[in-house]
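Hey team,

Filing this mostly as a record. A colleague (T.K.) asked me to run one chain through the structure pipeline before their review meeting, and I want the input and output archived in the tracker in case anyone asks later how it was produced. No errors, nothing strange. Just documentation.

Input sequence:
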Amino acid sequence: MNAVLSRDEGSVRVVTLNRPERLNAIDMAMLDGLDSALAGAAAETGVRAILLEGAGRAFSAGDDLEDQLRISAAGRAAVERQVEVLQRISEHMLFGAKPVVGAVQGWAVGGGFAWTLNCDFALWAEDARGFLPEIAYGLFVSGGASWLLPRLAGTAFAREMMLRGRRMGARDLLDAGVASRVVAAGRLREEAMTLARELAALPPEGVARAKRALLAPDRAALESAMRLESEACIAGACDPAALARLKAIGAQRKAR
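Output structure:
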């Protein structure tokens, strides 16, 4: 089964994270699939907007710990490739010319939460929740979250999520300026598609210029933060102490 699915609904490219049996936990197959799907959407002139969603009950449960342990065991080169693809996915969304709408249901955890920050518009189901557990694992956040979250929601809010691992509900995220809109869970897909179609109907050159202009004053700082994130992600994924924590967490989950 493909970890990422793509299909067109008119001029909207729908990209679906497709590991519902694992709550769309992020493994290398998903990273490669999402990287390819976003690059493909960018290259298609008939695609005017992107809708990013998760299959099943969650947007994404974050890192697949078993896959992370496998990648880390393969050595530093494998980790470096993983982080390179992970960060490139965010670059597609942040710096690409086409608007991205996120439809967030269930949990958005770790890298999955970072992807919601990368969307131009993130619509959250009213019962959805966000969570950044990386620091507790000895790992690090990705996707520009270390820069984006404090600028959207303030440093105090970012500390609560990044350092304390506080779980935030959709209304908390809306009040903090992280969620674009909170909608009834049963209407999430419809509302997200309506917005994506609205964006797709706009002149593409104007949309691309607006995306560039909105980020231009801060792009260098964001790119610098993402480079630091990459270094920290690689260091964490190669740290024996962090890997021991991941093994212990995995064992605890299997024992439940």
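Quick notes for T.K.: Residues 76-95 form the longest helix (20 residues). The mean pLDDT is 97.
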